[in-house]
């Protein structure tokens, strides 16, 4: 009987399986994560024109391109080499398996099956003279194989073993090969093997893991130092109402601009001369502030570079200009961290965990810094300065008596002749650059939808309910306005600056949760349209079309909605009709005109069934919508947020920038933030997000504002007002079958006790009484 034995790999065949598995574990994830993605590179390409700042930025970006290209080429070469090695090892394994699994002595000797002994001996003698180890062309391995094949055909016992077991030696022992070469356990190599093991697993691996862990614990998920985050928390808690210049000082104090925390920061001897000269050109720098770390040298230097950047002051390209590029490149990530810190402090203050509450002005001041730094403009400057070739001297043509152009959208909506008249000082190529940049700028359709999820009536807002604000962002481009697209012009009517326009809000917004006529199906209040006098919406009914008295009674008893308060004539009309009406019982009106009520009852039954069926269909539709939204949210959470949207024209920004947006709900009257800002980083075409907050605990009318802010462009912010009619929360009614009085409970308890504890004498007495 065959035995079993364990052995190390002497020939190297099983070791190939180990190498193949090891290469597969490395190559598959490495190729997925490290192979350069050309599609993302195309999307991230910067929008360049022929203006001088764009050409300078292109030159700066090209300086870093050689190193990036060499890195990409090295990565691709390493991956291709790994896959070639993987294919080679797989090929060697297939060849080895074929040799061991296909032992055919006739094939080895090169003769046909069924040959006689003479032909076998002749073929063996001929091949042995060629491959004998003593010959120059000898091959010991092949000669042993020839001898084994010859014995299998000439020896009677070997032939039987080959025919029965496929092996001339008979049934061999079952061997388990360890996929490691035998030299690893050799005594001569034991010192080197142990030394290599100790170096890799006891020194290199713990050191690399420790260095990675030490670096990772210093940064947040957004690659911001935790020490910088703590600094932000301190200053925002210390200054609940922070102005824009104060926020710039806090941003400049970030530890990412300090040499000991960031090795990219450079300190030169020339800074002692250039930085004081730059400070003299900046009147509102407040460099004499004594607060720590606002008074530190690195903080003053970063603050001066930020002020110079916003004022578009030319710097020395070989020294502090490089520092300005580093500070500007890091600022958007730091500003997003500042927004997160302020929003968390506000939420903690609402929960009562901290005393000081940062105001809405603080978080909006922080948000304003991002487009300012991206476009290198102070807030008070005109948004038209974001276009190429536009200088400060040309602003008088935009703000003349005939025309008041304060936004890029208004400029795009003008006729081409008027635009050329304003920009007549520019050449044809410069005007083409201006229109090229305008056509790439965003035109956002900002829609807001309010509902109460997980409730029977999603349009009714009760006290303490969870209100969900669904925000839909549709990204178009200003090029549609330049071409004169009528649909885009309609969409552009929804775009407004952050300054609120009361007339537009009255036309577009209605109160949420108001009652409607009972005979009409309920619609979301944001889909209602205000009646127009010119269209005949407020005409009086004719004499032969008077409403029944009971209907007018019911209409009069309803609460006055917001649309009725806006139309006082309608309210006066309804009160006059109510005074002239006699007292009418609603039950008589419901019973029908003939008094029998049979036809009305039948019609009411069918109407109730139809109403119930439609209500069930509405519930099913709402349930499907909720499930689809949950599925979308799960997919987004699993996929992760993309950082690619549309490139921004920002010639003074030192890197390629993508369009991002903040959206949030606030109470502008009380200057409070209601929901944490949602940071949208993947608005390519359309994006939906949900903002949730708890409705006020007191019933009444409330007004909130949904804001949209861009982190890349000035003058592209929007605002929508939502009005909530908060009603009292419904009391939970107990089911009738659970309403058991105390007397009934006592009777049940007494009867149960008497039945359970009755004695035999009691039973006999009851029988005698029955007789």
TrEMBL record:
Alphabetized UniProt keyword annotations: Chaperone, Endoplasmic reticulum, Membrane, Protein transport, Transmembrane, Transmembrane helix, Transport
Record-linked SUPFAM superfamilies: Chaperone J-domain (SSF46565), E set domains (SSF81296), Sec63 N-terminal domain-like (SSF158702)
Keyword Chaperone: yes
Compositionally biased intervals (Basic residues): 525-537
Basic and acidic residues bias: start-end ranges: 568-582
Pfam families referenced in this protein's UniProt entry, alphabetically: DnaJ, Sec63
Composition skew (Acidic residues), residue ranges: 583-592, 740-771
Compositional bias annotation for Low complexity: 538-549
Gene3D superfamilies per UniProt: 5' to 3' exonuclease, C-terminal subdomain (1.10.150.20), C2 domain (2.60.40.150), DnaJ domain (1.10.287.110), Sec63 N-terminal domain-like domain (1.10.3380.10)
Membrane topology: Multi-pass membrane protein
This protein's name: Translocation protein SEC63
Lineage: Eukaryota, Metazoa, Ecdysozoa, Arthropoda, Hexapoda
């Amino acid at each position: 009987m065959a035995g079993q034995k364990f052995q190390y790999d002497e020939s190297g065949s099983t070791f190939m399986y180990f190498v193949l598995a090891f290469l597969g574990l490395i190559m598959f994830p490495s190729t997925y994560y490290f192979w350069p993605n050309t599609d993302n590179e195309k999307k991230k390409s910067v929008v360049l024109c022929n203006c001088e700042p764009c050409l300078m930025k292109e030159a700066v970006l090209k300086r870093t391109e050689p190193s990036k290209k060499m890195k990409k080429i090295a990565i691709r070469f390493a991956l291709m080499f790994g896959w070639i090695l993987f294919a080679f090892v797989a090929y060697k394994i297939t060849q080895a398996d074929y040799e061991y699994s296909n032992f055919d002595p006739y094939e080895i000797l090169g003769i046909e099956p069924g040959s006689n002994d003479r032909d076998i001996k002749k073929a063996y003698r001929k091949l042995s003279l060629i491959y004998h180890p003593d010959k120059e062309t000898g091959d010991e391995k092949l000669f042993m194989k020839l001898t084994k094949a010859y014995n299998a055909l000439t020896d009677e016992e070997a032939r039987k073993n080959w025919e029965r077991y496929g092996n001339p030696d008979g049934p061999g022992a079952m061997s388990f090969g360890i996929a490691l070469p035998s030299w690893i356990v050799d005594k001569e190599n034991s010192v080197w093997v142990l030394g290599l093991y100790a170096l890799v697993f006891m020194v290199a691996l713990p050191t690399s893991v420790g260095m990675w862990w030490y670096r990772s614990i210093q940064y947040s998920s957004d690659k911001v130092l935790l020490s910088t985050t703590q600094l932000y928390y301190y200053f925002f808690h210390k200054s609940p109402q922070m102005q824009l210049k104060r926020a710039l000082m806090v941003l400049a104090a970030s530890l990412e601009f300090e040499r000991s925390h960031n090795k990219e920061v450079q300190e030169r001897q020339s800074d002692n001369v250039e930085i004081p000269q730059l400070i003299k050109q900046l009147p509102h720098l407040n460099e004499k502030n004594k607060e720590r770390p606002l008074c530190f040298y690195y903080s003053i230097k970063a603050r001066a570079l930020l002020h110079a950047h916003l004022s578009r002051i030319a710097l020395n390209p070989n020294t502090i200009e490089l520092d300005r590029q580093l500070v500007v490149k890091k600022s958007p990530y730091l500003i997003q961290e500042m927004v997160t810190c302020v929003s968390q402090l506000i939420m903690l203050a609402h929960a009562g965990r901290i005393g000081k509450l940062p105001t809405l002005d603080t978080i909006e001041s922080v948000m304003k810094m991002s487009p300012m730094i991206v476009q290198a403009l102070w807030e008070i400057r005109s948004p038209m300065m974001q276009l190429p070739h536009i200088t400060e001297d040309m602003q008088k043509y935009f703000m003349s008596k005939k025309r008041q152009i304060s936004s890029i959208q208004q400029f795009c909506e003008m006729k081409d002749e008027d635009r050329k008249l304003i920009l007549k000082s520019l050449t044809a190529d410069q005007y083409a650059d201006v229109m090229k940049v305008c056509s790439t700028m965003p035109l956002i359709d900002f829609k807001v939808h309010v509902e109460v999820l997980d409730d029977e009536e999603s349009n009714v807002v009760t006290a303490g309910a969870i209100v969900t604000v669904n925000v839909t962002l549709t990204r178009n481009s200003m090029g549609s306005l330049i071409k004169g697209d009528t649909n885009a012009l309609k969409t552009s009517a929804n775009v407004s600056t952050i300054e609120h326009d009361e007339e537009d809000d009255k036309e577009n917004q209605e109160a949420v949760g108001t009652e409607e006529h009972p005979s009409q199906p309920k619609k979301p209040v944001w889909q209602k349209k205000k009646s127009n006098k010119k269209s005949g919406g407020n005409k009086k009914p004719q004499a032969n079309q008077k409403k029944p008295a009971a209907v007018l009674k019911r209409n009069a008893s309803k609460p006055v909605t917001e649309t009725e308060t806006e139309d006082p004539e309608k309210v006066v009309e309804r009160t006059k009709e109510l005074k002239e009406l006699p007292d009418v019982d609603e039950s008589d009106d419901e019973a029908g005109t003939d008094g029998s009520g049979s036809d009305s009852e039948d019609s009411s039954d069918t109407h109730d069934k139809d109403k119930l069926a439609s209500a069930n269909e509405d519930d099913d539709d709402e349930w499907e919508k909720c499930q689809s939204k949950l599925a979308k949210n799960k997919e987004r959470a699993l996929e992760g947020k993309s950082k690619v949207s549309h490139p921004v024209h920002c010639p003074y920004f030192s890197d390629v920038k993508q369009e991002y947006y903040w959206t949030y709900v606030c109470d502008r009257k009380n200057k409070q933030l209601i929901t944490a800002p949602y940071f949208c980083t993947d608005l390519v075409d359309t994006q939906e997000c949900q903002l949730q907050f708890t409705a006020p605990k007191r019933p009444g009318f409330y007004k909130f504002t949904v804001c949209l802010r861009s982190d890349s462009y000035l003058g592209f912010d929007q605002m929508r007002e939502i009005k909530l009619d908060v009603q009292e929360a419904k009391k939970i009614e107990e089911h009738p079958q659970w309403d058991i009085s105390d007397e009934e409970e006592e009777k049940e308890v007494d009867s149960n006790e008497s039945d359970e504890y009755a004695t035999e004498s009691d039973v006999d007495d009851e029988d005698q009484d029955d007789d």
